[in-house]
Write a structure and sequence with these properties.
The protein is 41% helix and 34% strand. It has a three-stranded antiparallel β-sheet with strand order 1-3-2. A hairpin with a 5-residue loop joins strand 2 and strand 3. Helix 3 packs antiparallel against helix 4. The protein is flat, with a radius of gyration of 19 Å.
């Protein structure tokens, strides 16, 4: 069992928390695998270069991830006072979300299951 009062435990836990700017999108209507293709292209890149890649990438996931990167950059500027020029994408990852199960009618009374997958996307920036 933890020692100390509940507020003290929370205070200690919050001191250890990662202070890097981040943005998180839950329940994105994109399959996890398709989002990973786009994230792999921008991981470790500078902010301007990553936004350029995401702007001209034809995949649907790139438009969603571009908004998320811009949100993380705005968090860095407004909340932590970091310069936009020195930022780069330190970490970006995708977690599996829930699956919506739908039915597609087929011939002779059969039904095929369609799985509409979702994911949770997190982007963490850092300063060079």
């Amino acid at each position: 069992m933890a020692k100390g009062h509940r507020s003290q435990i929370k205070r200690e836990r919050n001191e250890k928390k990662d202070k890097r700017p981040r943005a998180h999108l839950s329940f994105a209507r994109i399959p996890e695998q398709k989002a990973c293709f786009v994230l792999d292209a921008v991981r470790g890149k500078g902010l301007a270069e990553a936004l350029g890649i995401l702007t001209y990438n034809p995949r649907y996931a790139s438009s969603v991830i571009k908004k998320l990167v811009e949100s993380a950059a705005a968090n860095a500027e407004n909340n932590l006072g970091l310069s936009r020029d020195n930022l780069y994408i330190a970490e970006c990852f995708v977690g599996r979300g829930p699956i919506m199960k739908r039915i597609q009618p087929r011939a002779q009374g059969r039904a095929y299951r369609i799985q509409k997958r979702m994911c949770h996307i997190t982007i963490i920036l850092d300063e060079r």
